[in-house]
Design brief:
Elements lengths: L2 E6 L9 H18 L3 E4 L13 H11 L4 E4 L2 E2 L5 H14 L4 E6 L6 H7 L7 H13 L22 E6 L2 H10 L2 E5 L7 H11 L11 E9 L3 H7 L1 H10 L10 H6 L4 H11 L2 E4 L1 H15 L3 E5 L5 H14 L6
Parallel strand pairs: 1-2, 1-10, 2-3, 3-5, 4-5, 5-6, 6-7, 7-8, 8-9, 8-10
Helix pairs in contact: 1-2, 1-13, 3-5, 6-7, 9-11, 12-13
């Protein structure tokens, strides 16, 4: 049976505030916990007016406290900005508070523009593999004796550890995930090109680790589900304008359908939108299930991480409810 999970970017819509977005994240997490979703991941974006989630490590604790059965984690921590030890300690605290429910998803993208990335500090992308190696060692308390920080321990220690995932929209994170014996999630909603081949290659090249014996992978997809196909396509228009703005360097809050319908797209913007539509799913519950199961088959995975943003909290929540019903998720 295909499992469904959630990636929440904490959207800030036109006419709303970042505080509204955070409150919606907590409410949606509670509802998805009831609906039977497997995990609830919080994204990391910086200096982005349309997305309020800049600190997933903070939101994870709040979401875990507001839910009971769903796994909660980062989708993901942008490791290049941070110390591997500090990230390990943060997630060991979360694991101590909510044992067996915490996922540590890490990514190599900046989650921002280059100016903001410089303001955040941290290391260059070429150091990412070493950061991953150190993070794995600190999280599991297995720093090699020859390591310069061999005597350092990520506190608090304990009998369990957060589940480690590498996230990516190219083959680089997949290679690292296979090498270190970690789980891998491909961001189809960012880049659909070659994702299935990359994810299957991860599974082939996977090296078992003490914490993961067999490869574990998922695919993250942008989905809008509604009672009718027309309603789903209408709601998806908000993303059309958001993507057009994003890829042409313009900020602003997440747009409404009315704003998207009133916008006069340039030829370049139309190309951007047409390309982006090829990596999203919009339709009725039956249509969404058919397309998502086909995608899971292409990727060779049994879990789909659903990214949904619509113009209201109500239509967004309803999309997740309809998907849960279509996949017959076991209610909690």
């Amino acid at each position: 049976m295909t499992r469904l999970s959630v990636l929440d970017q904490s959207p800030v819509r036109s006419g709303t505030s970042p505080a509204d977005a955070i409150r919606e994240t907590l409410a949606l997490a509670r509802r998805c916990d009831e609906l039977g979703y497997t995990r609830y991941w919080l994204a990391e974006h910086h200096s982005t007016p349309a997305l309020a989630g800049s600190a997933p490590e903070v939101l994870i604790g709040q979401v875990a406290a507001a839910t009971s059965g769903i796994r909660v984690g980062s989708g993901g921590v942008m490791l290049q900005h941070y110390s591997a030890l500090k990230v390990a300690e943060t997630f060991r605290v979360l694991e101590t508070l909510y044992p067996g429910r915490i996922d540590l998803g890490i990514g190599r993208a900046p989650g921002s523009d280059q100016l903001t990335a410089r303001a955040l500090g941290g290391g260059a992308p070429e150091f990412f593999p070493r950061q991953v190696q150190d993070l794995v060692a600190f999280v599991h308390g297995e720093v090699p004796p020859e390591h310069p920080f061999a005597k350092v321990r990520a506190m608090p220690t304990g009998p369990t550890a957060p589940e480690l995932w590498l996230l990516g929209s190219s083959d680089q994170s997949a290679v690292l995930a296979a090498h270190f014996g970690a789980a891998f999630s491909f961001a189809h909603f960012i880049n659909a090109d070659g994702g299935a081949e990359i994810t299957r290659a991860y599974a082939r090249e996977f090296k078992p680790s003490p914490w993961l014996a067999t490869p574990q992978a998922s695919v993250a997809v942008f989905v809008v589900c509604a009672e009718s196909h027309a309603d789903a396509e209408r709601l998806a228009k908000s993303r059309d304008l958001f993507v057009a703005r994003l890829y042409t360097g313009r900020g602003g809050r997440y747009p409404t359908v009315a704003e998207a319908e009133a916008h006069e797209y340039t030829a370049w913007e139309r190309q951007i939108v047409d390309h982006a539509r090829g990596r999203r799913v919009a339709g009725t519950p039956a249509e969404c299930r058919e397309r998502l199961e086909a995608l899971a088959g292409d990727y060779g995975v049994e879990e789909i991480v659903v990214v949904t943003i619509t113009e209201t909290a109500e239509t967004r929540r309803r999309s997740y409810e309809l998907l849960a019903e279509a996949f017959a998720l076991p209610r909690r």
